[in-house]
Design goal:
alpha/beta, 6-stranded mixed β-sheet, 10 helices, about 20% strand
Length: about 425
Amino acid sequence: MLAPTWIGSIIVATFLWLTQNGGNSPKTMPITFLHTADWQLGKPFASVTDADKRSVLTQERVNAIGEIGAVARQAGAAFIVVAGDVFDTPTASKKWVSAACGAIGKIGLPVFAIPGNHDHGGPGCLWGQDFFLNERESLAPNFKILLSPEPVDIGEAILLPCPLLRRHESRDPTSWLREIDETVSAPFGNKPRIAIAHGSVQGFESAIESEDGHSGVANLIDADRIPAGLADYIALGDWHGTKQITARAWYSGTPEIDRFPKGPTNEPGNVLVVSLDRGSAPEVRVERTSRLRWRSIDFTFSNDSDVEELESKIRQITGDEVGRDLIQLSLSGSLGIEATSRLEAMLETWSARFLRVKQIGGYGVAPTDDEIQALTRRAGDPLIARVASILISELSQGGDASLAANAALRQLHAAIKSLTPPTQ
């Protein structure tokens, strides 16, 4: 006797479901979350000499948390993952702890972070201090720091944190993931699994340079040895540029740029919006969050009119904005005395207008033919002509003598120009 039609339908549906799902628990819906890292709140920016401008730079790092929250909400993210270095130091001041908790609390979404090399965990660390715990409870109950290398079920996903408990770990911080067997991972079901780690990825470590200039084998991560079936996405921190390492492993980079670019492949100032489903390749979208603009400009002077060309280039890049740009100028070539004075006036203006102007390299002073004649062919002033001739010959000698001759010659030129009556 045939089973009733509705029973047969159930049997068929169950068979199809088991075939497609291998008898496992049903697949969950894809989730969207935000991947960020390397906030380094409280970074001192000691190379910026102006105290007010340093304050702007440090505050912008806190402001970036608000930008991160806005991107997360717009993307419909369920939560935010911070892959290390919330703070710039393991002894962050109470000011920055309060600022961080206040900003994180306003995001309104769960925020999960691991300690990195700058704010590493371990006994006596910041993360266990009463002040932090009280501020987090009061201002940011949505913020959780993951201090143990063990799976964390957050409902929508399984987090696999790889926290740094000291600044430099000789062992791969993700090595514990290779020890998870099927009996441990079975309860994870079909929830997406996200590994979170901070360090240099093997094969890419030669490009990694940490904030203190360290580049070596400490905190070295072998992403290829993380079992493919265990982690659907590997959220990395330490490299300050956005970088894809494998199909499932990414560096998000720092959300607020904090240094001059190091090559065309270094893309800082972003966060990553990740859409993820169990067993599928992640979909990753890069979103810009940085407000500050760090620019590196190479420029060679071939004639005096190039000063105006440089001015036009700077204006084209920065517009008329004040207090948002940091400019690194690599200048070469040579200029006449008058053009050098015009350039120095421009540099003075830029230093006031921008957060920082860093000049590297150097350009020479090469008086034009007209300037040489005006200085050395002075029948009525033979002493001035003689001094000018000596200074001009010193310019080509290099070293301190050339620098001194440069300054003296320009002063002499300015003095003569001030004494020369204007042409009617």
